[in-house]
């Protein structure tokens, strides 16, 4: 393959030189030609042929440049896809890319070739050719058919990606703010999110996400502002929100992007199929990490809104979840936000010694009894 | 001379001329109602803004290409926006970086490519090419320029205020642009931005209504719609787009002003900022995006259609061949204009908008590729078997076609919502639109300046300098924007001050540095153009009446047309504007005002039948009872 391209490159370079040297001779010939009538100031001057040849030479050199640069830089194109839908969008990206590159090379070649072939020549007879309806129909129909093909493939993929998340999806509440991300998990005891309300947000009081502690589901919720963990091979549903200005969750390797909008929660679900360890082995980079970036301009440190993403094997993920401390444990002062009648239940999370053994059945019961339809707000 | 009917002008032309001799300097060159002077005013304002906008892009390109660079040397111009760290190294302030990006976009899209391009050439060419003495309302035209001028002054002032100009990017999405606490650029800078844009919209509407009215009402005898040059069709469609979409931007801006200053909640809801929950509830930031892109998308066609119109004219003239598919070109432009209104939400696939809406907009967006492709094919077929003269204008026109194709093709990927997920707001988008509407439109504008310079200033521009300008710019633009696609495919987000914080985006330093160097060379090559432009105005070679042997009516005016354009009667039009190299004709061009009866040797059979109708055209009397 590389040899083939090298041969082609050399061929094009030789062609270019031939074209350029031919220009020289033409230029010499032209300078001898007699002067046109003086009134015709726009008459072709002695650079006319050079310009026409130059356009075509430019195109030949460009082809070499495009092929070379494509090969040289290809390795960092579309960072290795690590989600199931990502592999599909990548596939269609390259299909579309091939289609448009064919169009790109054909159409530009005609443009520059005609500039070269039909550069001014005193003896040429111009073809008076005003229109051809058959041609118009042909070149309206062909793009239309190609477009239709791309539209329908795109629609199919898009509908699949944006469909409802499976019921067993792991839900994560991710909130953007100036300038960082915070993620919240539903907790290991009830696996239900507590409600939130922006009016309860309080950075100083340790509740930046506005979690409503009058909702007992919130007691075991835990949060993290430096990394997000997700399980490999299991659907993950991101419930996305912002608390100040627009942000956008962008996970390059997962082909995930969705704006975070204040006042309008958004969502995106996907299945990661390569754990962080898998990727480290595959890329041969022992310190590789998935990253989450912001892609909606949000102010001064827009470029610094980074969150690490760790994709665990499902068992490791469950272990990690269990090791996380609920918000109430992290910040026992939040107990003051819990209504008196629920304090007893909440206290389990604020005391350092877990009393889980006796309370646990009760929690399980409450999650079985209801609230299954009540998710986030 | 407003709305004066043709016949009356003929009768009173001598009086009219005496009056105009008395015009003082101010009425003649500053508060002028002459469309040609107003066009030049727009052109020069546009060039000044373009220089400013391009230099801004160099500052942020330096930051992106060489993030470690010591920028202390820019302190004399940028003052406190360059901060010195403990080692004495000058660093660009990240807020000012955002302000630069915002201003570059605003200036280039609105002040250069809308006012500078459409304002210049619609004003200059509409009366000259349709055979009118001036615009329908010269006064409104003057008002349009001076309101644009005030708008420019307001925007210019915003560059110098302490908190800096607007910094929420040119799309000014709230809540960022609505909350002063969110960003220094959302303070007074944003207020001035909104005031300036409101004035700009007023100016643009005054201009647009005038263009449409003039084209509909003031065409000369025989100039039926199917004999209009494609430039005029393009300007008319552009004006219609502007008239229908700019008011929506005004309402979007108005609601934003209310949210910012009067405590309403059109775009604001559930916001906690600076340790405080705001009372606003029930608004939607997405609403703003819909309203903004309802203008924002037609805006890109407002920018590109006039450029395509100019190109049609230049390519036909310099290929010495009729434009291929005149009617197909008109229908494509009409199709583009219509579709331009119903594709706006393709900018919003991942904003949280209902995905079904995304599907609909994806479908409509990819349809618009078809008329655009048809235009490209028609240009290329026009070159086929022509006899091409590569004037600087022609070179720029060919460059435009190449950019339009190359940049347009990537739109097929971005318009596909499934593929847009990964590429949205990355450098792929930046590369796409800078080629297809940025560089293409600038090339259209430059082509137009080179081509119509003799008619504007009565002198020729220097060709050699034109060639040098073209070659450096053409190669430079591709070197800047082609590699940018690669950076985008790698996922680099736009509007980032630097990427080094992310492992994922920690490659391609060499490409970014390369792009910056190419950008610097390209921008500085424009000095050749500016020198050529200024020098030729005063000392250029004297132009002849029709230097390009072109068919359209503007070349039948004197070398320096006075107020009223034609000293005597306005020529009557008998044929379409593209009779180049007609078989049998002695010359390779037949101007529009040459009747068929004078060219029996080259008439096509159906044209011989039209000779009978010429008497009818000649005997047209305009109804003089309607004016003023």
TrEMBL record, chain A:
Asked if the Swiss-Prot or TrEMBL record annotates the protein with the keyword Cell inner membrane, the reply is no
What are the GO cellular component annotations?
plasma membrane
Cofactor(s) needed for function: Cu cation
Say where the protein is mainly found.
membrane
Q: TM spans, by residue?
A: 49-71, 91-117, 137-158
Using the record's annotation, list all stretches that form the Cytochrome oxidase subunit II copper A binding domain. Answer: 167-323
Free-text function comment from the UniProt entry: Subunits I and II form the functional core of the enzyme complex. Electrons originating in cytochrome c are transferred via heme a and Cu(A) to the binuclear center formed by heme a3 and Cu(B).
Q: This protein is called what?
A: Cytochrome c oxidase subunit 2
Task: Give the species this sequence originates from.
Answer: Lacihabitans soyangensis
TrEMBL record, chain B:
Gene Ontology annotations for the cellular component aspect, listed alphabetically: membrane
Against SUPFAM superfamilies, the record matches this protein to: Cytochrome c oxidase subunit I-like
Q: Which Gene3D superfamilies match?
A: Cytochrome c oxidase-like, subunit I domain
Where is the protein situated, by its record's location annotation? Membrane
According to its UniProt entry, the protein's GO biological process terms are: aerobic respiration; electron transport coupled proton transport; respiratory electron transport chain
Family, per entry: Belongs to the heme-copper respiratory oxidase family.
What is the name of this protein?
Cytochrome c oxidase subunit I
Protein source organism: Lacihabitans soyangensis
């Amino acid at each position: 393959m590389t040899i083939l391209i090298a041969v082609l490159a050399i061929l094009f370079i030789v062609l270019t030189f031939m074209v350029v040297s031919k220009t020289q001779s033409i230029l010499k010939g032209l300078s001898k030609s007699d002067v046109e009538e003086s009134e015709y100031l726009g008459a072709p001057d002695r650079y006319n042929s050079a310009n026409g040849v130059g356009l075509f030479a430019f195109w030949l050199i460009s082809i070499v440049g495009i092929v070379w640069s494509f090969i040289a830089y290809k390795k960092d194109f579309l960072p290795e896809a690590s989600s199931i839908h990502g592999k599909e969008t990548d596939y269609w990206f390259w299909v579309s890319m091939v289609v448009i590159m064919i169009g790109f090379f054909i159409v530009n070649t005609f443009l520059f070739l005609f500039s070269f072939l039909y550069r001014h020549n005193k003896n040429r007879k111009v073809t008076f050719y005003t229109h051809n309806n058959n041609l118009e129909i042909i070149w309206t129909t062909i793009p239309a058919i190609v477009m239709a093909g791309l539209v329908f493939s795109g629609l199919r993929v898009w509908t699949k990606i944006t469909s409802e998340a499976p019921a067993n999806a792991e839900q994560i509440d991710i909130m953007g703010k100036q300038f960082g991300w915070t993620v919240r998990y539903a907790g290991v005891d009830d696996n239900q999110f507590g409600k939130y309300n922006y009016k309860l947000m309080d950075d100083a009081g340790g509740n930046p996400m506005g979690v409503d502690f009058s909702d007992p589901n919130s007691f075991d919720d835990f949060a993290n502002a430096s990394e997000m963990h997700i399980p490999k091979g299991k659907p993950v549903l991101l419930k996305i929100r912002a608390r100040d200005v627009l942000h956008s969750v962008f996970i390059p390797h997962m082909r995930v992007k969705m704006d975070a909008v204040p006042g309008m929660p958004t969502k995106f679900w996907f299945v990661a199929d390569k754990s962080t360890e898998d990727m480290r082995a595959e890329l041969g980079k022992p310190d590789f990490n998935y990253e989450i970036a912001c892609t909606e301009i949000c102010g001064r440190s827009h470029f610094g809104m980074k969150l690490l993403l760790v994709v665990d094997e499902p068992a490791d993920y469950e272990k990690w979840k269990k090791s996380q401390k609920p918000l109430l444990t992290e910040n026992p002062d939040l107990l003051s936000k819990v209504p008196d009648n629920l304090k007893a239940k909440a206290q389990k999370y604020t005391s350092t010694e877990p009393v889980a053994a006796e309370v646990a059945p009760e929690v399980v019961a409450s999650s079985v009894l209801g609230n299954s339809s009540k998710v986030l707000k | 001379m407003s709305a004066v009917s043709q016949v009356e002008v003929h009768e009173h032309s001598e009086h009219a001329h005496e009056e105009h001799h008395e015009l003082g300097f101010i009425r003649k060159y500053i508060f002028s109602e002459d469309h040609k002077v107003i066009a030049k005013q727009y052109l020069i304002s546009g060039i000044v803004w373009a220089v400013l906008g391009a230099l801004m892009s160099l500052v942020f390109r330096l930051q992106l290409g060489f993030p470690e660079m010591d920028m202390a040397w820019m302190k004399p111009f940028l003052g406190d926006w360059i901060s010195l760290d403990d080692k004495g190294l000058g660093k660009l302030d990240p807020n000012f970086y955002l302000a630069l990006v915002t201003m570059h976009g605003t200036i280039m899209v609105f002040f250069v490519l809308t006012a500078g391009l459409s304002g210049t050439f619609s004003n200059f060419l509409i009366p000259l090419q349709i055979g009118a003495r001036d615009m329908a309302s010269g006064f409104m035209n003057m008002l349009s320029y001076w309101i644009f001028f005030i708008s420019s002054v307001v925007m210019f002032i915003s560059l110098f205020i302490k908190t800096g100009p607007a910094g929420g990017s040119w799309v000014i999405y709230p809540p960022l642009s609505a909350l002063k606490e969110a960003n220094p650029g959302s303070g007074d800078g944003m207020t001035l931005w909104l005031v300036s844009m409101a004035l700009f919209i007023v100016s643009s509407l005054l201009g647009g209504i005038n263009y449409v009215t003039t084209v509909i009402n003031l065409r000369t005898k025989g100039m039926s719609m199917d004999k209009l040059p494609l430039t005029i069709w393009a300007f008319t469609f552009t004006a219609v787009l502007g008239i229908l979409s700019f008011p929506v931007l005004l309402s979007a801006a108005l609601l934003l002003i209310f949210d910012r200053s009067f405590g309403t909640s059109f775009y604001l809801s559930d916001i906690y900022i600076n340790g405080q929950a705001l009372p606003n509830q029930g608004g939607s930031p997405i609403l703003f995006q819909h309203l903004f892109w309802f203008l924002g998308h037609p805006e890109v066609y407002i920018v590109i259609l006039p450029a395509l119109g100019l190109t049609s004219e230049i390519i036909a003239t310099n290929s010495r061949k009729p434009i291929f598919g005149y009617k197909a070109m008109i229908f494509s432009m009409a199709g583009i204009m219509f579709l331009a209104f119903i594709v706006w939400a393709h900018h919003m696939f991942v904003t949280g908008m209902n995905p079904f809406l995304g599907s609909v907009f994806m479908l409509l967006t990819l349809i618009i590729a078809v008329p655009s492709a048809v235009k490209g094919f028609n240009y290329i077929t026009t070159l086929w078997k022509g006899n091409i003269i590569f004037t600087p204008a022609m070179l720029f026109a060919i460059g435009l076609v190449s950019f339009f194709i190359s940049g347009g093709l990537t739109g097929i990927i971005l318009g596909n919502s499934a593929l847009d997920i990964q590429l949205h707001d990355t450098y792929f988008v930046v590369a796409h639109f800078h080629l297809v509407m940025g560089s293409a439109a600038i090339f259209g504008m430059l082509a137009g300046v080179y081509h119509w310079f003799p008619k504007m200033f009565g002198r020729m521009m220097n060709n050699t300098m034109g060639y040098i300008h073209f070659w450096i710019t053409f190669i430079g633009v591709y070197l800047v924007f082609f590699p940018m696609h690669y950076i985008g495919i790698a996922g680099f987000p736009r509007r980032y001050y630097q990427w080094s914080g992310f492992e994922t985006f920690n490659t391609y330093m060499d490409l970014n540095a390369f792009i910056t160097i190419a950008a610097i060379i390209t921008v500085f090559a424009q000095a050749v153009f500016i020198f050529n432009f200024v020098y030729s105005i005063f000392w250029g070679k004297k132009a002849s009446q029709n230097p390009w042997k072109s068919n359209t009516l503007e070349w039948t005016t004197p070398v320096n047309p006075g107020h009223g354009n034609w000293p005597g009667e306005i020529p009557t039009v008998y044929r379409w504007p593209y009779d180049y190299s007609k078989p049998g004709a002695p010359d390779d061009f037949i101007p529009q005002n040459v009747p068929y009866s004078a060219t029996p040797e080259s008439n096509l059979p159906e044209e011989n039948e039209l000779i009978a109708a010429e008497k009818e055209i000649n005997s047209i009397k305009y109804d003089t009872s309607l004016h003023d």
